[in-house]
Design a protein that fits this description.
Shape: globular
Number of helices: 11
Number of strands: 14
CATH topology of the largest domain: TIM Barrel
CATH architecture of the largest domain: Alpha-Beta Barrel
Number of domains: 2
Largest sheet: 8 strands, parallel, barrel
Strand content: 15-25%
Helix content: 25-40%
Length: 342
């Protein structure tokens, strides 16, 4: 249920509604807009008659049922777009945000060079893996805490926030200490214990779609994070597994449009993992911007042929600079066209 408060509702009236919601065993989630306050009442369905009866309370305009299984992530709960702020950046705001860097932290020299390359190209956020989930137990698993230290150092030197993956509940506090955005990778999108844990974190969460995850399942995963108290969630489309073998995965660009219709959360696209090959990354990055993505997640390596992980899908510096020129021009063109609309 969503309790819509009147636009002149007093703070004390809002507090009384929250107390009522909690008294019947529901959780209250506030969404305070410019004009009015919405309060989500989230529970298992028991006591919904008492929730509906709150329409009689002072300051309440109406009580609206949420039909979607994902409550807090839905536009029914929050009609306006959520903007996730990281430092001075706005993910989901009017400007495209680019997160870029190597698949994994290999050494201080490699990471620093990568960081300076993506900063020079105009990226806003540095990405890199300190913990790496690999199919083979014999593959490089990441530099772990030392990798986190290097990421923080590179971010501070270049003035960029850092996004990196967290893989289990015991590492959330550690990764949060060193990074600015916690990434939940495709393999952990339905690791519900981990989702609950990052839901208690103070940092934003970048939630990647799983390779076999429906959009509803992705939004239900986001619901775990939101319901635990963390409202700063960013969704990421990174390709799904289909029968097609020409690319590593199949990039589902329709997901951007559907997600932005169903949910208020910002949506970014990772064309690097979606395609698995550098030559497809720039065309699909342009396509992602064209369909309305709020940001891009791009893999960049100074020497992809020497990369320990995913070198074939990583852009060389000159290719990254070209990608940034292309998407910047496209973004400006689309913005001008939107401004011309009546």
């Amino acid at each position: 249920m969503v309790i819509v408060m009147k636009n002149n509702a007093a703070p004390e009236q809002v507090r009384k509604v929250v107390e009522w919601i909690e008294s019947v065993g529901y959780k209250a989630h506030l969404s305070q807009g410019v004009e009015r306050t919405l309060i989500g009442a989230i529970g298992d369905g028991r006591g919904k008659e008492q929730i509906q009866a709150m329409v009689c309370l002072p300051g309440v305009e109406k009580v609206v049922p949420i039909l979607k299984p994902y409550k807090l992530a839905s536009r029914e709960f929050k009609p306006t777009d959520t903007v996730v702020r990281v430092g001075g950046l706005e993910i989901g705001g009017p400007r495209l945000i680019v997160m870029a860097g190597p698949c994994t932290v290999e050494s201080e020299e490699q990471l620093m060079e990568s960081a300076y390359v993506v900063k020079k190209g105009g990226a806003h956020i540095l990405r890199g893996g300190a913990f790496k989930p690999r199919t083979s137990p014999y593959s490089f698993q990441g530099m772990e805490e030392e990798g986190l230290r290097l990421l923080k150092k590179a971010g501070e030197r270049t003035g960029m926030p850092v996004v990196t993956e967290v893989m289990n509940t015991t590492e959330v506090d550690l990764v949060e200490e060193y990074s600015d955005i916690l990434q939940i990778g495709a393999r952990n999108v339905q690791n519900f214990a981990l989702l609950k844990k990052v839901g208690q974190a103070r940092k934003p969460v970048l939630l990647k779609r799983g390779m076999m995850t429906t959009l509803e399942e992705l939004l239900m995963s986001a619901e775990y994070v939101l319901s635990a108290g963390n409202t700063r969630v960013i969704l990421c489309e990174r390709g799904i597994r289909t029968f097609e073998t020409a690319t590593r995965n199949t990039l589902d660009l329709s997901a951007v449009v559907v997600l932005k219709e169903c949910s208020h959360l910002p949506v970014i696209v990772d064309p690097s993992h979606a395609t698995g090959h550098w030559k497809y990354v720039t065309p699909l990055a342009r396509a992602a911007v064209a369909v309305g993505a709020d940001g891009l997640l791009i893999e960049v390596h100074p020497e992809p042929e020497k990369a320990i992980c995913d070198g074939i899908q990583s852009l060389r510096p000159e290719k990254f600079y070209q990608l940034m020129d292309d998407v910047s021009l496209l973004e400006r063109t689309l913005r001008k066209e939107v401004q011309k609309l009546p």
